Amino acid sequence: MTEHDDRCAVPATAAIRTDAPMFNRAAWLRILPFAAYLAFIVIGDVLQRLGVAPDTLRWLYPAKIALVALLLALFWRQYKELSREFTPFYLAPLHALTALATGVLVLVLWISLDAGWMVFGSPSGFDPRVDGRIDWLLVAIRIAGAALVVPVMEELFWRSFLMRWVDAPDFASVEPSQLSIKSFVITVVLFGVEHNLWLAGIVAGAAYSLLYMRHRNLWSPILAHAVTNGLLGVWVVRTGSWSYW
Question: What is the top-level taxon of the source organism (predicted)?
Fold first, then answer.
């Protein structure tokens, strides 16, 4: 990434300001899509407890993905690490192959690290069947959302924002290759416990974070994340393992 090239020197006065907000505008642009995604999860849980029919709750996912995609589109020009002007959607062939291989490896580990102690609760997952038949429109939306929207939203939050923000409030000035062990551990653990499969989540978070730090390009973990989620969707439908969704 090149967004930090002109910002490496932070004025000394910036370090001692006490009235600076915890999150700047760039931070909020990465937080809001993620917060919207989480809000729908909470809404779904509340509606389920209130007895709303499962057939109705299934359509919360398309609504959630639509809102997150809209927010990403509205803010897109502000994501300089993804902007064509600053960092074109380009990965060196070796980096792209590494990201693809990492995505496949994470998938294999994701569906393998499922022992009882590796799981939080009993996730019901996302069951796209209606009257015993798979609703292929819901399946298509689910896989497209998981493979195309979620990786961008999560990598912007976890890697682009939070991982660098742990090291410096002016996170955009932090070079990915210079991230600290503290930021790596905190982000990986939080990413893991965000998921029911917490250990698999930690492994995935570590893999994506290492790609980001080594390749210094957010598209690398986005690609790996997309491969993992896309192939997981195909595997879930093929095996009927809805709890993994």
Answer: Bacteria
Q: According to the model, what pLDDT value does residue 141 have?
A: 96
98, 86, 101: which is closest to 4 by C-alpha? 86
Q: Do the Cβ atoms of 109 and 203 come closer than 8 Å?
A: yes
| Closest residue by Cα to residue 156 from 80, 233, 232 | 80
* Sequence-ordered list of residues with C-beta below 8 angstroms from that of 10, at least 6 positions apart, any chain: 168, 170, 173
pLDDT tens figures, 82-117:
876 555 567 889 999 999 999 999 999 999 999 999
Nearest alpha carbon to residue 4 among 127, 172, 124, 159: 172
pLDDT for residue 12: 41
Task: Based on DSSP, count helices (H) and strands (E) in the chain, helices before strands.
Answer: 11, 2
- The residues near 194 (Cβ < 8 Å, ≥ 6 apart) are 201
Higher pLDDT, 12 or 74: 74
Which residue type sits at 147?
Answer: A
